[in-house]
Structures are given as structure tokens and as C-alpha cells.
Amino acid sequence: MTSMTVSRLLSGTIKLVLNRSTICLFDVDGTVTDPRQPIDPSVRLYLIDKLKKKSLIGLVSGSDISKIDEQLGGPEHTAQFDYVFSENGLVAFKNGTELKRQTIVDYLGEEKLQTFINFALNYMSKIQLPVKRGNFVEFRTGMINISPVGRSCSKIERDGFEEYDKIHNIRKKFIESIKENLPDIGLTYSIGGQISFDCFPIGWDKRFCLRYIEDEFKGNIHFFGDKTFVGGNDHEIFNDPRVIGHTVINPRDTIMQLNNLFNK
């Protein structure tokens, strides 16, 4: 941690204990839940019943709202967060009510969209993996999610692909091939979760959500995420100058860091 990061963190802490003009934003997978697993009720209770008394709370995820609802235990629990930014904020909610939505179709147009999808399907047809299942291309409102193993895989197969990918860099090589073959498609890419990577228009990473809160919470936006490394889907927002970033390793670590931050 650099001295600048420490000073920013300390100044943020002082403001945190004085008022609720602060917001804590959380990635979902690997941060408040284990990857693609339901949230531990104790974690949800901590965020909603304890943390919310000291700070506004929000979620920002590449997943669509239905997947967030599933992991949080249902829409009634998701709605208890002050802000929810699904698909990086392309579909944004405040106090359970939709604020705004933007679509990748409107941005790219059908021709570019099909060029990209056709390339991705052709590339995956040539990859040999330990297993392949279904749902390789998932179309979302503001992005496309690509999974070489297929999102229909089981938990054991998901874990197996993650380990295989660490050795063979399947997702990283896939992204490099897209960049080489479709340099002008207008998309950028980030690896998130265990089995997939997100593809979205340049500038539509998790920083997109900041437009809804940057004025109200200027200097007091804390972000917690597990994939803050280069290429991870938390990297851009973690390093944004409008944000005080915190790298976590799992939900337990998230709560530990929150306790340290708010109890100083």
C-alpha cells in the first residue's frame, strides 16, 4: 500500500465515523459471496443491519439483476441496498427502483454484434478443454459474457476449469485473439469470476456506475473487490481517482476490513 493510499484511506475513515455521506460499493462474487454462491446470511445481516447505519451501501456487478437477486437471497434482500448497479451500472437501481438502463445493441449495432458473436463461437469450437457444457455466450443488456467451458457447468466442473485456466490461460489467450482479429470492434474485456470474461463497450467497465454517485459522495466512495489486478473486472474502478479502493480475498476478509475501517 502506497503512502498516498494510506493517507486517502485515513482521511476517508475520519469522514466515515462523522456522517453517512459515505458509500461503500461492493463487488459480489468473491467479495460479499463466494463465487456464484448464495450469500452467507451472517454477511448479509452485517451489511444491511450494521454497516448501513454508518454508510450507504451498494453493489456493482457484471451480472444481471436476476443473478444478483439469486445470490443475495431474493429481490427483497437486494432492494435493501441503497444502490444496485447490475451489468456494471448499465442497469442501475436506487432503493429498489430502476434508475436507468442502456443497451449494447444500441451502442454497437446488429452488424458489429453478430461479427463479434460469430468470431467467439468459432474460436470456442476449436478449443479442447477437460469438459464443455452449454451456454457459452450470454447476452446481457450492457455486455456479452463469454464462458469457454459453458455456464451450464456444475460446481465441480466450474472449480476444475478455474484451476485449468490458471495453468493454461484459456481466457487470457481468448481475449488476446479477439483483440488481434477484431481490433476495431469497440469493445474491451475483463476476466471475472471462475469461468468467464465480460465484453463491453470501451468505458463501460465498473466505473460506469460512478456517474450516478460521484457528485453526492465526492471523496467518500469506497470500493471493495477481489479482482483488482490488471485484467480483473475490478481493476478500473479500484484505481479510479474518485474511489478509495480495497482489495479483498473473500467475504470474511471484506467484513474484517470493514470492521477495521469503521472502528478506528
Task: Provide a descriptive summary of the structure in words.
By secondary structure, the protein is an alpha/beta fold. It has 10 helices and 11 strands. The strands form 2 sheets. A 7-stranded mixed sheet has the order 5-4-3-2-1-10-11. It has a 4-stranded antiparallel sheet with strand order 6-7-9-8. The two termini are 18 Å apart.
- Tell me roughly what share of residues is in helical segments: 25-40%
Tell me which oligomeric state these chains represent: single chain
Global geometry: globular
Biggest β-sheet strands, sense, barrel:
7 strands, mixed
Structural class: alpha/beta
For the secondary structure, the number of strands is: 11
Question: How are strands sequenced across the largest beta sheet?
Answer: 5-4-3-2-1-10-11
* Cα separation of the termini: 18 Å
Runs with pLDDT <50, length 5+?
1-18
Arithmetic mean pLDDT = 90
Range of strand content: 15-25%
SSE order, as H and E? Answer: HEHEHHEEEHHEEHHEEEHEH
- What does the radius of gyration come to? 18 Å
Helical segment count: 10
How would you summarize what this structure contains?
Helix content is 38%, strand content 19%. It has helices spanning 3-18, 41-50, 65-72, 75-78, 104-108, 110-124, 155-168, 170-181, 235-238, 251-262; strands at residues 23-26, 56-60, 83-86, 91-94, 97-101, 137-139, 144-146, 187-192, 196-201, 221-225, 244-247.
